[in-house]
Amino acid sequence: MPFQLELAPLAGFVTLMAIAAFEDLRRLVIPNGVVVGLCVLWPFYLATSPSCTLADAMAALGCGLAVFSVGALLFSRGLIGGGDVKLAAAATLWAGPAKILPLLALTGLLGGLLGLFALLPVGLDFVGLCRRTSSGPGEVARIGARSAVVPYGVAIAAAALIVIVLQSFH
Fold this sequence. Notes:
Helix 1 runs antiparallel to helix 6, helix 2 (32-48) crosses helix 4 (82-119) and helix 4 crosses helix 6. The chain is built from six helices and two strands, in the order H-H-H-H-H-E-E-H. It has helices spanning 7-27, 32-48, 54-76, 82-119, 121-127, 152-168, and strands at residues 139-143, 146-149. A hairpin with a 2-residue loop joins strand 1 (139-143) and strand 2 (146-149). By secondary structure, the protein is mostly helical. The longest helix has 38 residues, at 82-119. The chain is globular. It starts with 6 loop residues before the first helix and ends with a helix.
């Protein structure tokens, strides 16, 4: 099987999403460099995609801006972290209009499951989510003096990998 050029940016996407998930789980931070890397790789993904048109690229850009705008509003209300907003917008660029609904639905489902897991005592201990005692973006529960913070970047990255990477091979 010959090398398919579109796999190179997709490999970068997988790597960067894995880093985002790992860092969010470990430090509750999604590094800006990861999001910038995703945005820089995106045009190469479009350029190597056999069926991408300029209209597709503009529609994907519009979807990314829409997700960023809604996310910024949620961030300003303290409902979601800033890194999560940026990661979701970058993932939406890659998904484009054809895959945005599955991406957002799966992100919500996986985020809800992660939130439920975080409420369990084993979830608090396993993920190390009881580090914060003050309320803030992403906080879902307060148990005694401990609070559970959901690393939502894990859900965003997992959903993006499932929707974008798996559907790229169909």
